[in-house]
Amino acid sequence: MIDYDIPGFTDKNDLLILEEFASKVPENGIVVEIGSCVGRSAYVLASTVASSVQVYCYNTWWVDDQPNLDAYVGDQTWQESYGSVDTSIESRNLLSIFETNMKQRGITNVIPMHQESPPEDFPFGEVDLIFIDGDHEFDGVYADVDFWYPRLSQNGVICGHDYCQHFPGVKKAVHLMAEKYNREVEIMNKTTIWRFAGN
Ligand SMILES: C[S@@+](CC[C@H](N)C(=O)[O-])C[C@H]1O[C@@H](n2cnc3c(N)ncnc32)[C@H](O)[C@@H]1O
């Protein structure tokens, strides 16, 4: 389900693709999202999968750790497209906003993680869907794909956001990782979502 009342950085086409990926996650499966912000994409993932699926959400939950957020939320065009984020001092902890957004919508299968990605370990099992939308610099994306790809289940999907000119590091890292793991990169129609083709 898509809910534009949750502010976010993902648009309708992105969310429809995430919905499609999430609809294929098996019962009792595992989803990992890196970069949840206040929950726009997490809500689509969590509301689409079966309630037996756990959705682990990694984020830097403190607004002040997000160098570009104040610039984005102050931008009128951005606000018109994506809604406004309250950055008053009371609202600088994104985790409480994220948790409220999930709770208000009856979502109980998200697990906010209190580390940045990549973590030191992920001891919860193989992952059926990985969505990477956290650190957008080359080193961060490279490290994320390198950590998470080997944790995919056999038919699992790894994908990410912002494969575009604005984020050259994302494009470069995704291609180098595809080369390393002998996979093809596919860009999903009308979006900046990449995935390793095949699954
Ligand atoms: C573009 S936003 C995510 C948008 C979200 N997917 C949506 O639908 O609105 C990226 C988020 O990733 C977080 N982030 C950046 N680096 C991270 C890292 N290494 N681990 C986890 N989260 C990270 C940022 O703090 C920010 O909240």
Query: Measured on Cα atoms, how large is the radius of gyration?
Result: 16 Å
CATH architecture: 3-Layer(aba) Sandwich
The main β sheet shows up as: 7 strands, mixed
Low-confidence stretches: none
The CATH superfamily turns out to be Vaccinia Virus protein VP39
CATH fold title: Rossmann fold
Chain oligomer state: single chain
Number of helices: 7
Q: Order of strands in the sheet with the most strands?
A: 3-2-1-4-5-7-6
Gross morphology is globular
The structural class is: alpha/beta
Descriptive overview:
- By secondary structure, this protein is of the alpha/beta class.
- The protein has one domain (12-196): Rossmann fold (3-Layer(aba) Sandwich), CATH 3.40.50.
- 34% of the residues lie in helices and 18% in strands.
- The protein has 7 helices and 7 strands, in the order H-E-H-E-H-H-H-E-E-H-E-H-E-E.
- The protein has helices spanning 12-23, 40-48, 69-73, 76-82, 94-104, 138-148, 168-180, and strands at residues 30-34, 54-58, 110-113, 127-132, 152-160, 185-187, 194-196.
- Helix 1 runs parallel beside helix 2.
- S-adenosylmethionine is lined by residues 8-10, 34-37, 40-41, 58-60, 65-66, 116-117, 133-135, 140.
